[in-house]
Amino acid sequence: MSEENSNIDAPSSFDRLNLDQRVYKAVCDLGFESPSKIQEQAIPVLLTGSDLIGQAQTGTGKTAAFALPLLSKLDVNLRAVQALILTPTRELAIQIAEACQSFAKYLEDFHILPIYGGASYDSQIRALNRGVQIVVGTPGRVMDLIRREKLNLSKLKTLVLDEADEMLNMGFIEDIEWIITQCPEKRQIALFSATMPDAIRKVATSYLHDPKEIRIASKTTTASTVRQRFWYVSGLHKIDAMVRLLEVEPYEAVLVFVKTKTDAEAVSLKLSARGFSAEALHGDIPQKIREKIVDKLKNGRLDILVATDVAARGLDVDRITHVVNYDIPYDVESYVHRIGRTGRAGRTGDAILFVSPRDRKMLRIIEQTTRQKIEPMLMPSNEDINRHRVNAFKRRIMDRLEEARDDLDDFRELVGELLSDETVDPVELCTVLARMANNDEPLVRDEDEEEPVQKELRDDRSERRNEPKEISDKAVPLKDFPDIEMCRYRLSVGHCDGVKPGQIVGAIANEGDIDSCYIGQIDIYGTFSTVDLPVVPDHVRAVLQKTRVCGRCLELREFTKDNPGKGGRARGKPFSAEKKTPGKRKLSSRSGDFEHTGRRRKSR
């Protein structure tokens, strides 16, 4: 562990990192302008074939940091597993596979496969038999396929351990060590972790050869003069949310941050089409035009600037009262830099963050790292917008009345002539003139117009208030195995932790070694979830009680209606290897646990 870097100034462009030109072209197509700190430091190391330890917080762009060099070194003509990426969860495995697929847009005959518990063995084995170059998987299923001799690592060149500390928390550390021993002796290992506990450091010392160590330090102080709020909105609703925000927030100038230059152009065009004074600023804009745009923002001839992180570097405009994170930043340090563009020199400012369901984890990381609470904000209703429009229009009229009137003589004479006509009603005349002043556009929205539904990110207390009062303690029989006795269990993760059914299925299948066809109905509530399973043996229950999902132990226990917070003793006999269901289906045991030897139904 010979090299440690902690600070780098402005990142260089991707074209300086010696990526394969096909990979570099895909990166450009995606609109990314400049690498993050972890990408700029890790990519050159991984391209040389050296082992690497990368310590950086979640959300710093680690996926591209290892995916881009892996793809650049890949031999697409070889239909064998050349890279294995281990992740703690199936969701992360899928996310990494999708990212690699997008970066490999111009690599012909490229194949990547995500493998994880809870999914069909058959489809994964068929894909492996056809040949894939990269496998992304959770440790449990990877081990299983290696033992079945379906996953061949003899041609492996690189092993990536992503979120190693999270895999440690979930109890995968011994599995990881076993998998490393199945890899060729000459292979590259890249270990990424947000923290470096002793167990992870021990793995690095034991299995990595003279690794280069990169540590990304985050600047996490935010100004106390900036009010921070978030709005739960995503996808196509973002532009409507942006318009509603601009309708009701009293702003002078707004800086809107997006991830890519393509997004900057798209968002600025959409805002301009809706009547706002908006322009884009990104890395493809020449310096002279950039200077003109910034001058317009400073002089009040431009109100909204939609920019990427790179383009906004060094931007210092006192008029900026609001910073809107249209896209959540990759890391906490970027967030701090972004919102630092407002609230300067003792002035107050507002920072607003758009949060989609998949961004909830990053929101919590930002709050935890900056140690500041980001308050939720409510979506303005049509009534709120109309009230604001009417008040703003009144202010415009009153402001003009108070201005010097020397240049109004012609209009005063014209209005006098119109009012001298007894057929002209003064109120109707003023109404027509007001409509003309508003460019013949309606002043208010139709209050009956359908409004987008705003979901909420609640804290634990509000989640508890919204949990249903009555939850059945009766398990639902399995459709394929109606004779198997089922029991309803309680898990200590819920909506407030951001858990999804797939994560529960994956954890139970991987850690409890229970085939997904025996995992029944799953219901997720505010602070807990329920899952229907065959009566779980004590040794399996002990494992699942300690299994971690979304950073929390599952604490599996029997769900009881009278006291859902406490577990009781499991009813009936544990599900055993000798139990058989009617017909052709036979049940066997693997290490005393469950495995269906016949055809499996698809997981939930």
What labels describe this entry?
Rossmann fold, alpha/beta, seven-stranded parallel beta sheet, 604 residues, disordered N terminus, 4 domains, 20 helices
What's the quick description here?
With 604 residues, the chain is an alpha/beta fold.
What can you see in these coordinates?
The chain is an alpha/beta fold and 604 residues long. It folds into 4 domains: 14-215, P-loop containing nucleotide triphosphate hydrolases (Rossmann fold, 3-Layer(aba) Sandwich), CATH 3.40.50; 226-380, Rossmann fold (3-Layer(aba) Sandwich); 383-437, no CATH class; 466-596, Alpha-Beta Plaits. Helix content is 36%, strand content 15%. The protein contains 20 helices and 22 strands. A 7-stranded parallel β-sheet has the order 3-4-2-5-6-1-7, with helices on both faces. A 7-stranded parallel β-sheet has the order 10-11-9-12-13-8-14. β21 (587-588) and β22 form a beta hairpin. α2 runs parallel beside α3. The chain is globular and about 95 Å long. It starts with 20 loop residues before the first helix and ends in an 8-residue tail after the last strand. The relative contact order is 0.09. Residues 1-12, 456-467 and 565-604 have low confidence and may be disordered.
